[in-house]
Every structure is written in structure tokens, then in C-alpha cells.
């Protein structure tokens, strides 16, 4: 087959996938690549599955630096131990490993008892990471673990191949915020991260003093006021922004100069801080679900899980809870 023929075939695939429908079957069990209900044939509507559950990611911290520092034999042993441990712990806690990408592993849990299973699996992974570190004292081995809960849509992708290549040419794609957000949490877990923010002092707009619908809807209302009202409130206030959000709040007007979307800008000051993220991070949905499922568990009773104040984890708007919990054995 020539390159021209391959490109024509791929373009036919694009048209096929674009023109055919997708439908999803609700399930309580974790789909696998061998699930015959999942389809990806040409000239047919594609069938996927959806599951409302917990997803966990775990990742080795500083793996690039570890590979630079330590012998390949040492890292090969560690990767082998790490992967085997995650597979065994996932199965023990009723989870299914669905992706191993280098040193990052994805575990998905059936709907029933997903909160308890996911959190307990995270504790077990954190526990075994300490054991691995004790066996390889010259290697600073640490893991970051993130968990989220929500609706995941699962589709099968790939090609039919004959022989040993068949399994390597098929996989599942997990579409949905829970997979993305669990991965974001994993990126930050077990790290000390420097954060920069901006503290803004300003006089908020006095919306009672503003008239005209267009003024109220504008991010920078015009100075049209009632006779006895001021455009701005008399008392100043403060607000903290990320650097990116602060930039979005600023604009320039030829008459007024630099404008701040919240009101009359008084001053702003950059603040630098460091957040020490624990090894296990979970969204508020997971924490609340786990707390409801395990109200008498010692980690809940003793308040071992702490809210991460001002976590600044990208794309996550909910509260985040975390801990460095291991089993007492």
C-alpha cells in the first residue's frame, strides 16, 4: 500500500467517524478492551459505555531526575516493583488497572463501594511506596496519588490485527472530567510547589449608584450615576488572584488609564508562597462520599484528611482534601 492509499483510507475513517453516531450504555462495572459491547467498526454507529465512579491515578515523583541519577538496573527494578504492586493493590481493593503509561497508572473502580475502595487503595499505595523507599535507601522514591468521582464515558479505539499485534492495536479512551481532574491532582500530590499570587486593594463598584442596563452588564461600567450615589463604595476591600486571573481583570482605557474589573484600583502586591501537597489528594466529591460511606473509620474520626487551603490546582474549582496516611500494621 502506498502512502497515498493510506492517507485516502484515513480520510475515509475520518468521514466515517464524523458521520456515524455514538451511543453509550450505562454500566456499574469497569469496561475492558475485550468488552464485546464496545464497538469501533466502520459503517456502524459506535457503542461506548458510561460509568459513574471513582478514578485514581498514581505517578512516581521526579522520575526523570531519578533516571539521570541512578543506574538503569536500579530503576528497572523499581519500575517492575511499582507496576506489580499497583496491579496487586488495585485488584485487592476491587479496582481495575486501565492504563499504564510509563510511571503513571490509572485505576478505575466499580460503582459499588467506589469511595471506600478508591481511598483505601490510595492509602495502600502510599504505604507500599514507603516500603519500596526503605528497600532502596539511596533512591528518594515517592508517589503522588489523585482521586476524583464522576461520569466517565468509555470508547474503544484501534484496529483489528491478526496474531500477537492484535491486543497492542486496541485500547480504551476514558472521556470525562473525573479522569482529567484526578490526573491534575496526581501532578501536584507529594510536591512542594511555589505559588505566586497578587493581592489587590480596591474600592468595589457601587451598583446602586450605576444606572442603565448596558452599564450593569459591562465589565467596566460607565460613570453614569444617580445624583446622590457614588460609583464606588466608600470602604475598600482586598482580593487575591492568581497571576493569570489578575491579568484577565485588567484593561486599558484612554480616558481612565489602567482599569480593574472589580472597581477602582488602589494598589496591588505580588505574594509568593509555598504549598506542601500531601501524597494523596482527592476532590470534595470523593471526600464527602468516603466520609458518608466510612463515618466510623479512624481516619475520619481523627480528622486525618485536611482541606488544602488555596490549593491553586489547575482546572479544579472544588475543595481539595489530602493526607499522608498509611496503614498501622
Write structural notes for this entry.
The chain is α+β, with helices and mostly antiparallel strands. Helices cover 32% and strands 32% of the residues. It has nine helices and 14 strands. The chain has helices at residues 3-19, 63-69, 72-92, 114-135, 177-188, 213-217, 243-248, 284-293, 298-301; strands at residues 22-26, 46-60, 96-101, 104-108, 143-158, 170-175, 192-204, 237-242, 250-253, 257-260, 263-276, 280-283, 306-307, 320-323. Strands 1, 2, 3, 4, 5, 6, 12, 13 and 14 form a nine-stranded mixed β-sheet that branches. Strands 8-7-11 form a three-stranded antiparallel β-sheet. α3 packs antiparallel against α4. It is globular and about 75 Å long. Residues 212-218 and 220-225 have low confidence and may be disordered.
What is the number of E strands?
A: 14
Which oligomeric form is depicted? single chain
Helical fraction equals 25-40%
Overall outline: globular
Number of helices: 9
- Distance N terminus to C terminus? 61 Å
- β-strand percent reads 25-35%
Amino acid at each position: 500500500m502506498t502512502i497515498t492509499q493510506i492517507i485516502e483510507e484515513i480520510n475515509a475513517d475520518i468521514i466515517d467517524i464524523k458521520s456515524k453516531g455514538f451511543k453509550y450504555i450505562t454500566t456499574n462495572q469497569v469496561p475492558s478492551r475485550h468488552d464485546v459491547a464496545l464497538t469501533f467498526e466502520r459503517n456502524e454507529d459506535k457503542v461506548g459505555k458510561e460509568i459513574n465512579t471513582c478514578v485514581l491515578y498514581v505517578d512516581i515523583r521526579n522520575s526523570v531526575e531519578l533516571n539521570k541519577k541512578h543506574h538503569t538496573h536500579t530503576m528497572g527494578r523499581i519500575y517492575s516493583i511499582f507496576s506489580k504492586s499497583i496491579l496487586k493493590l488495585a485488584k485487592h481493593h476491587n479496582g481495575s488497572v486501565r492504563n499504564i503509561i510509563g510511571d503513571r497508572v490509572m485505576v478505575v473502580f466499580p460503582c459499588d463501594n467506589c469511595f471506600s475502595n478508591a481511598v483505601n487503595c490510595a492509602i495502600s499505595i502510599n504505604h507500599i511506596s514507603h516500603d519500596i523507599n526503605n528497600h532502596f535507601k539511596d533512591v528518594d522514591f515517592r508517589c503522588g496519588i489523585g482521586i476524583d468521582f464522576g461520569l466517565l464515558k468509555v470508547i474503544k479505539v484501534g484496529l483489528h490485527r491478526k496474531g500477537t499485534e492484535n491486543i497492542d492495536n486496541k485500547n480504551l479512551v476514558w472521556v470525562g472530567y473525573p479522569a482529567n481532574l484526578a490526573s491534575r491532582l496526581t501532578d501536584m500530590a507529594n510536591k512542594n510547589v511555589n505559588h505566586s499570587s497578587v493581592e489587590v486593594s480596591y474600592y468595589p463598584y457601587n451598583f446602586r449608584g450605576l444606572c442603565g442596563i448596558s452599564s450593569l452588564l459591562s465589565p467596566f461600567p460607565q460613570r453614569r450615576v444617580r445624583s446622590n450615589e457614588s460609583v464606588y463604595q466608600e470602604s475598600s476591600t482586598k482580593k487575591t488572584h492568581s497571576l493569570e486571573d489578575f491579568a484577565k481583570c485588567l484593561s486599558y482605557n484612554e480616558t481612565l488609564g489602567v482599569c480593574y474589573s472589580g472597581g477602582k484600583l488602589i494598589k496591588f502586591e505580588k505574594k509568593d508562597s509555598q504549598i506542601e501537597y500531601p501524597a494523596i489528594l482527592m476532590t470534595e466529591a470523593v471526600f464527602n462520599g468516603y466520609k458518608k460511606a466510612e463515618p466510623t473509620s479512624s481516619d475520619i474520626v481523627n480528622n486525618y484528611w485536611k482541606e488544602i487551603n488555596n490549593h491553586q490546582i489547575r482546572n479544579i474549582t472544588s475543595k481539595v482534601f489530602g493526607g499522608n496516611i498509611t496503614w498501622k500494621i
